[in-house]
Design goal:
Radius of gyration of chain A: 23 Å
Shape of chain A: globular
Largest sheet of chain B: 7 strands, mixed
CATH superfamily of the largest domain in chain A: Metalloenzyme, LuxS/M16 peptidase-like
Number of strands of chain A: 13
Shape of chain B: globular
Distance between the termini of chain A: 34 Å
Oligomer: heterodimer
Structural class of chain B: alpha+beta
Structural class of chain A: alpha+beta
Strand order of the largest sheet of chain B: 1-5-6-4-7-3-2
CATH architecture of the largest domain in chain A: 2-Layer Sandwich
Strand content of chain A: 15-25%
Strand order of the largest sheet of chain A: 1-2-8-3-7-6
Largest interface: A-B, 80 and 83 residues
Helix content of chain B: 25-40%
CATH class of the largest domain in chain A: Alpha Beta
Number of strands of chain B: 12
Order of helices and strands of chain B: EEEEHHEEHHHHHEHEEHHEEHHHHHE
Order of helices and strands of chain A: HEEEHEEHEEHHHHHEHEEHHEEHHHHHE
Radius of gyration of chain B: 23 Å
Helix content of chain A: 40-55%
């Protein structure tokens, strides 16, 4: 169900969308295997554990419109059983769950807008690691996709979707995505109807088409050597086809908005949920750093952002107020969000839009930029001080094709920015006169 | 309910952990296997200082824990521990409102704070070279919190918005609020951490100042530092910055012991939702010390029972109730409140599948416990749970934040600092017979409270029944 709520990925990304980085003293090693799989490794020997992330270009942006939710459904069903293969036995969903629990390991799949990803966390005791790798390899390559279990999961997902539509935050997110993305796949809504059009044959066909060793980006952080990592990645991908990774069909870009749009949806709730935004930036945008740091000042920097100061600290209008970019292969949304008592919503909308307009027009002050640099550069080590965080950073480099010294240069890139860089980048990306504004809650107006 | 924690800022709201079916999660059960050294000292003014070195990266977390939470509150001012937590960011004799956060940010730090039933905590994650600066700031606000009334008037509105966000627009959170208020009549665990809206409306700035004076004494607080630090150097810094704060006795709250429950209680909440939901809460013993004792063994066995029922995907409850074409539930769960300063419960919960009723699910959940009482559990099931906990204890070492939280929480509950490791050792000794024994003894009607959420379909034309209480603006 988590995987199906695709729109929520953006909501969950508050403040976390931002760039990932790793440590100069922990160099990223990279090589390509004979299968074509690209491997990225940071050796981190202190704790006897290993984290692995395996990403494929098979996220929900490749869902057919009529079958929105296909990638997420495939990810969800892949933990529900392994088919027999040669002398290797089948596992039903409970046997599979027990096998992972008995290893003390965790393995799962999830679909984002761009990536279909698998993550493995295991101890590195040789017998456990060996069995975990074997099981993960089979689970990725030989899913059973049982029809009765897909039927059950589809019913549960449908019930979750109906429940979610009784919550103002979810309703606001759906309306916002529709308005910002139009008919782009980033805006597809998963419904009972789109799930009903997905059969287990569709899941099998997607799996056959999308999961190929030649397209895998594999990131590892943990107590393994390069030699061990190379061997275990080969075993992880051994059952997947190593050919057929030709160019995939192009996915169109997100269209810019032609006009502003304001949606006020009545809803029975104690708070109105407000979302304001428009298409934002692609991850490959040359102004990525300027936009990231600018947003840190505008609404991404915790207690000291402009939005927090104006909406929460000065006026007490909302517990949570934030802004973020969701950069992906395409221009994910720029979003401002808050929640407030319904009668205060017009004021909160006006204050937020004023803050954004002024920021786009004038950019940050020198003092604000310096404060943001102090925080981001001074706190860089906090981005890379655990295996989990390192893995996110390595996978970011792997997925986005960033240079291997990306992390070494991260603080320099932030440090080199000027207020003019940020003002120019925001002026290019954000058009305050064409914002989507969604207010869900309060009586009909 | 059991592990529910509020934070001052939303971005770290993941602290308010949610369980399998949207219910708050239990206290963490797993324990660290690491025998990595923990150092601790008590300063002359009574402040406890706890240090756990972890030199993997040049960062540290600095936490200040105060042994005061919602269980120390009284009627009429519920939620005040949490409001005080918010107001601690509003200045001191020498720092203007907002300046604390600006300084932490300038040091490259991240910060937040949290309030639970049993404690209040403040933390900064920083490059380890900045430890002294955040200690200076934290010691200053601990001793010298000071702000104009106008700051309180704005912040109390923020807290009310937090209550609307977390509770009033969240039917299952509302249900758990009502469940606690129904299951407990005298114990302060009956009140929500965030407070009743009427109490927030009536709260004054001076109420908050008085609460700070009463509870924020060095003898009622602990500093926890984990990360790339030297213990002796941390002790020296703590002596310098926290040492001068005057000692002050703290008068504990009145006991307000819960009288025995002598029959089942039941409540129904009708709220805007699509899915029904039911929770069965049984009063059970919890861990109050690490030494052996009968009720202590029972508490451990109850935690194992919860894990056998719902501790991993495909465990007993899911397999029996949420699988198959004629399943009773779309989700099910079980957890046990193992630790806390107040009374605890064992909770079974679930969402009925379409066409099934809450009553059917209630009976089936109890039947699964009865099955354990009748047939016992297998050694293999217990081993599976232990394997998972043992591995989890290794994974936990990856986060210095988690290590600091575990230490602070043990201190706040009056448990030894190695309780995490001792707990795992003790859980290993629980037998199948002990698990069967607690399934027999604690799941009758006498200590049971059943809470049922009856969904009302959303109606855009219906007036909010949760209209802003006493809204004056």
């Amino acid at each position: 169900m988590k995987n199906i709520a695709i729109k929520n990925l953006f909501a969950l990304g508050i403040g976390l969308f931002c760039m990932k980085s790793a440590l100069a003293v922990l160099p990223v090693q990279q090589w390509t295997q004979a299968s074509g799989a690209q491997v990225f490794l940071v050796e981190s020997p202190a704790i006897p554990m290993l984290d692995v992330q395996i990403d494929f270009d098979a996220g929900s942006r490749r869902d057919p419109a009529a079958q929105a939710g296909l990638a997420s459904a495939m990810a969800a069903l892949m933990s529900r059983g392994i088919a027999a293969s040669g002398a290797e036995p089948a596992f039903d969903e409970n046997q599979l769950a027990e096998a992972w629990t008995d290893l003390g390991a965790q393995f799962g799949a999830s679909a984002g807008s761009d990536r279909l990803g698998f993550s493995l966390r295991t101890l590195t005791r040789p017998d456990l690691l060996d069995r975990a790798v074997s099981l993960a390899a089979r689970q990725m390559a030989q899913p059973a996709f049982p029809a009765d279990i897909w039927q059950r999961e589809r019913e549960r997902l449908g019930a979750d979707l109906r429940e979610a539509r009784t919550r103002p935050a979810h309703v606001a997110g759906l309306a916002f995505a529709r308005a910002v993305y139009g008919d782009h796949p980033y805006g597809y809504e998963v419904t009972e109807a789109t799930l009903a059009r997905i059969s287990v044959e569709d899941l099998r066909a997607s799996h056959r088409r999308d999961l190929r060793a030649c397209g895998a980006r594999v990131s590892l952080v943990g107590a393994v050597s390069r030699q061990q990592a190379d061997a275990l990645v080969r075993r992880l991908l051994a059952h997947l086809p190593a050919t057929g990774c030709g160019a995939l069909p192009a996915v169109p870009e997100v269209s810019a908005l032609a006009a502003p749009q304001t949606l006020a949806l009545p809803f029975e709730s104690a708070q109105a949920h407000v979302l304001i935004g428009q298409p934002g930036m692609r991850r490959a945008d040359p102004d990525f750093f300027a936009l990231f740091v600018g947003n840190h000042i505008l609404g991404g920097g915790g207690f000291v952002s402009r939005l927090t100061e104006e909406v929460r600290e000065r006026r007490g209008l909302s517990y949570s107020v934030y802004s973020y970019f969701a950069p992906g292969r395409h221009a994910g949304a720029f979003t401002i969000g808050l929640q407030t008592r319904p009668d205060q919503a017009p004021l909160a909308v006006q204050v937020s839009q004023d803050v954004l307009r002024r920021f786009v027009a004038e950019g940050p002050t020198e003092a604000e930029l310096q404060a943001a640099k102090d925080n981001l550069i001074g706190g860089f080590a906090l981005r890379v001080d655990s295996n989990r965080k390192l893995l996110d950073n390595v996978a970011n480099i792997a997925w986005n094709g960033l240079p291997l010294d990306y992390l070494d240069r991260w603080t320099d890139r932030v440090g080199a920015l000027t207020t003019a860089d940020i003002r120019t980048a925001f002026a290019r990306i954000i058009q305050p006169e064409r914002l989507v504004t969604v207010v869900v809650g309060g009586a009909a107006r | 309910m059991l592990g529910f924690v509020l934070t001052v800022s939303a971005p770290l709201a993941a602290w308010a952990q949610m369980g399998p079916s949207g219910a708050p999660a239990p206290s963490p059960v797993a324990a660290a296997p690491s025998r990595a050294a923990v150092y601790s000292q008590t300063l002359p003014n009574g402040l406890t200082v706890i240090v756990k070195p972890d030199r993997r990266a040049p960062t540290a977390v600095h936490m200040l824990w105060v042994r005061v939470g919602s269980v120390d509150e009284v009627d009429g001012t519920s939620g005040i521990a949490h409001v005080l937590e918010h107001m601690m960011f509003k200045g001191t004799a020498t720092l203007k409102p907002g300046e604390f956060s600006r300084r932490v940010a300038a040091l490259g730090g991240r910060e937040n704070a949290f309030t639970a039933r049993d404690y209040t905590g403040y933390f900064q994650q920083i490059p380890s070279s900045r430890l002294e600066e955040v200690m200076t700031l934290e010691a200053d606000r601990f001793a010298n919190m000071q702000w104009p009334d106008d700051e309180f008037r704005k912040e109390i509105e923020v807290v009310k918005e937090e209550r609307r966000l977390r509770t009033e627009d969240n039917p299952r959170a509302l249900l758990y609020e009502q469940l606690a208020a129904t299951a407990f009549v005298a114990s302060p665990v009956r009140r929500p951490i965030v407070g009743w809206m009427s109490d927030l409306e009536a709260m004054t700035a001076d109420d908050v100042r008085a609460f700070h004076r009463r509870w924020y004494s060095p003898s009622n607080a602990a500093v926890v530092v984990a990360g790339d630090v030297d213990p002796q150097a941390v002790f020296e810094l703590a002596r310098r910055h926290y040492g001068p704060i005057a000692a002050r006795p703290v008068e504990p709250a009145k006991p307000r012991a819960e009288p025995p429950q002598q029959g089942p209680r039941r409540l129904v909440l009708r709220a805007s939702a699509e899915q029904a939901y039911v929770a069965l809460a049984f009063k059970t013993p919890h861990l109050v010390r690490m030494e052996a004792g009968e009720s202590q063994r029972d508490a451990l066995a109850l935690t194992l029972l919860s894990a056998v029922l719902d501790g991993y995907p495909g465990a007993r409850l899911e397999r029996a109730l949420a699988q198959g074409a004629d399943r009773l539930a779309d989700s099910v769960g079980a957890w046990h409140g193992l630790m806390g300063r107040g009374p605890q419960q064992f909770v079974l919960d679930g969402v009925p599948a379409p066409g099934k009723t809450a009553a059917q699910l209630e009976a089936a959940l109890r039947a699964e416990v009865a099955r354990v009482a009748r047939d016992g559990v297998s050694a293999a099931e217990l081993e599976r749970v232990r394997t998972q906990w043992t591995a989890g204890a290794v994974y936990k070492l990856d986060s210095i934040m988690n290590q600091a939280r575990e230490l602070g929480s043990a201190w706040a509950l009056g448990l030894p600092l190695d309780s995490s490791e001792r707990l795992l050792d003790q859980l290993r000794t629980v037998t199948p017979e002990e698990v069967q024994g607690v399934a027999r003894r604690y799941f009758g009607d006498d200590g049971l409270t059943v809470a049922e959420l009856v969904p009302l379909p959303p109606d855009p034309n219906r007036k909010p029944r949760l209209a802003p209480v006493g809204a004056r603006h």
